[in-house]
Amino acid sequence: MNYRFIALLSISIILIISCTNDKKEETSPIVMHTSDSPSPKVILLVVDSLMDKPLKKAIQDDKAPALEFFLKHGQYSNELVSSYPTMSVTIDSTLLTGTNPDRHKIPGLVWYKEDEKQIISYGNGFLETLKYGVTNMAQNSLSQYNNADLDKNVKTIHEELDENGKQTASINAVIYRGNYKHILKIPKILAKTTSLPAQYKTNGPEILSLGDFISLDPENNHVINRLGLNDAFAAQELKYLLINDLLPEFTILYMPENDHTVHRKGPMATKGIEKLDKHLQEVLNVYPSWEDALDNVIWIVMGDSSQSAVKKNKKKALIDLRESLSNYNVLKLGETVDKNNEIVITANERMSYVYKINEEISIKKIASKLQADSRIAWIAWKNNEMVQVISEGHKGILQFKPGGPYKDIYNQTWSINGNHDILDLDIDEHYQISYRNYPDGLSRLYGAIHSQKGDFLIADAKPGYEFIGESSPEHAGGGAHGSMHKDDSLIPLIITGTDKGIKHLRIVDLKSWILEILE
User: Model pTM?
Assistant: First the structure.
């Protein structure tokens, strides 16, 4: 097997998806109305790991004129709440379905599927891919993710808009399920040098583009860099739709490269934003003037998650749960479960799932072992209807479930017992809940803890720390995401062209808001 081509495929598919202060009162953006047309079109630009401070710095340094243009002609918020875990595959699933993981059933980038007794990976670094198997990873990423794992009981925005007679497009987004059949073609040189099939069948929107696997513009030559899973390719595809008057009612455009820069350089890096902005300038230059781009088009520019700075000292920064749980027999990547295996560990950067796969061990005892590590903010698991949460820095236990006398700022009601400081909840005498370090923390944690079958716990790291697995990537001295902390969870949002407010500033609410715009 030619490992050069394995590396190329791994980087091409994997890297695209591997991807403040006290909470203020929630506000909905009221943005400029630039057209009186009853039938606007929506372009949603998702910029991986776009964050408020580096965005503001790039604009201040005159390095991001396109983003500054959108910001000046719209409304801006830096408090859009991401999904949880703050990993791209889960976030994208929430964005496209308008549901949390308890409904769309994509728990993270890496997880353990109980009924199949195997680790599911959508691509978590080159070394991990080699152990898991390139063919398995490609199958998961190019076919299974959209067509099998994403729950059939929820509809994507592409499916709903198509049923409403609206045409949609997806460009380089990894979650794109729709009502139309497509063929993803493996580049010939990869098909010939690996065991991958020549093509995969998939279901997507009427207009689907995914790098060199399926494209729109026959002249798009930006395929050498990660087989087209890059910003230049995506921008060229959008330009093709605009120039040829093919823009549908809804288009989602995914821009991945800023994420790579932030992982390497840390949360304040602006080079990725500066490169992104040049591509956006090319898109805007398609129009006679940039102002013309606002006519009858609603532009939404958003991040998917933020990243936290990871300490430089690897020994301190990187949490290897295999060390804390060394007295358990851990399932290794690529191996089949046998009677000797007791637990499975799947690290998703700054959060991790730990699964009990042997009936003779206790999930509570595993949690108690992890509680001794001061780098772990909290550990959660489910016990009957209640979610249980403990922390090294707090006494007692927090228990909660939906429904009850407590109400949060999203009008969600909860039953809560125990030490609410564990999740940094502020509860007043009227049973009103405010979130501080963990925005929408109860709903997001409930969604993750009910995202899959099995007996497992969630460990969430404090800022500055990251979990590592058997061969997972590490980001000491750079940036990482995955946790529920506000440092990973609060992201910027720019909207132009509509005065329709969003009910709540959460990614989970964007789908219904866009559907209302396009009614």
Answer: 0.92
